[in-house]
Write a structure and sequence with these properties.
Number of helices: 13
Largest sheet: 4 strands, antiparallel
Strand order of the largest sheet: 1-2-3-4
Number of strands: 15
Mean pLDDT: 87
Order of helices and strands: HHHHHHEEEEHHEEHHHEEEEHEEEHEE
Low-confidence stretches: 1-29
Helix content: 10-25%
Amino acid sequence: MFFVLRFLLTLLYPPLSFRPNVPHEPLKYKMDELQGIDDWLVTPENPPREIEGLDYERCANLHNYILQYAWIASSRHISDFVRQSWYERHRDDGEEAFDRLEPTLLQFLKSAFDPPQYEVSFFYWANGLNYPNNLWTNWQAYRQGEEDEYRFLTLYRANEMSHSDGLVYDQTRHKVSMFMSIDDHSPRENEDSDSLWVPLETLLSNWIQMIRLGKITAVPEGVKLENERHFPWIYHSYSSTQVEDTLVAFNRLVDAIESRLPATTKPVRHTAITPDKVLDMAGVKNPSFARSFLRSIRRPHFKFIARGILVPSLETFAQHQHFTSISDPEDPHTVPPVLLFPSEKTFKFDSNDQSGQRNPFLGVYVDTLGSASIPAGIYTNAISRGAADTAEEGFRFILPYGIGKNEFVRTSDGGRLNDENFKDLYQHGAKALGGDWTRAQRLVRLLDNWTRMINDGKWEVGEDGVLGGIEKFRDADTAENWRDYWLEPDW
């Protein structure tokens, strides 16, 4: 019930920074027409079922929920929704395709609703179920012989982009992966890339989670953000619920550390870690995820929140912000990175890197700061609210040294950091659940990882907080410890 209520509130009241000038009052009664979906969602307590083939009943319920939510949230009445399945719609032109489909996948398509393309897009990244004659179009060059000729197929079309593909289904593994472009084929056709393939019910549940968080929402005509939309879907750079969830994760980490402080540590009065006056002085954008987070978290009773990573100081917070005063004359929608948790060490941009592969932020910051020494640590990600796939709630952990020489450290997709990388520790890589490779990992996941490191006894706590300098993060590039610094694939 809590999640359903929070979901409805998110729909009715988007984040303050992006609240549209279009009333959402009709949703109050319209959403009541949509049947609940909680029993079908994949969660830690309700994982994918052990079923041979595709769990078509569960997947069809999740698919139909997303589609009907899009219909209702775009100010249409549910009684006008045509409950015609993909199979029924293509009964006359899909016979050849039916024979090539694995039986449980065909059962899913007999239950999954498929309205005409012009009505609503299925999701922000997926236009809708593919046409029978296009299921294998993008896979002709990847067929592995007669036996596997129809193994991979594009089940859902991607929304229009350059060389777009879609949600790909593997009829052997009965798993899916979101290929935003046909250029995504190469890293995923390898059998070793199993983390990039997930059950369809897992992916659809994650998309519903993004709706409930307010990250991606369906809205009526006339509601717009600065970025691209795929009617009725819009993509928020962050949501108020994401701020709340990150605050909860921060408090969990602080509690875990404080519970292990020596008894001699003197308690301090709980105060805001960075009040508005300090944030104004530092030039932190208002409104923004960084500002909402920093103004809400309390000051802990210690100095180090992770190995070599400091709690920000009121005295030095503003002077550590090298990016907040930089604007991009060609893009008024940029949100500069904010240093949340600094290190005592520094790093420098690689001014010789023309490709940008070794620089953590947008080019305008490299051009402005050149080779200046910048504090290492945890930054919010530099984004443009005019871009289609961004994460203000994302972070970049900037190390004062390169990592990856031993080729053990890796991103969530299993990719190795093998070029003395100093900016991609804990990051995604390719995303099985949808989205651009460059979108940053969410801060909430980093804080949860650090809490586990404390609770599992892998990090020790002393009088000043977490013990060990930032050099200890080199453990991420060792055979024994890399998994401690790896985040499982997620959106």
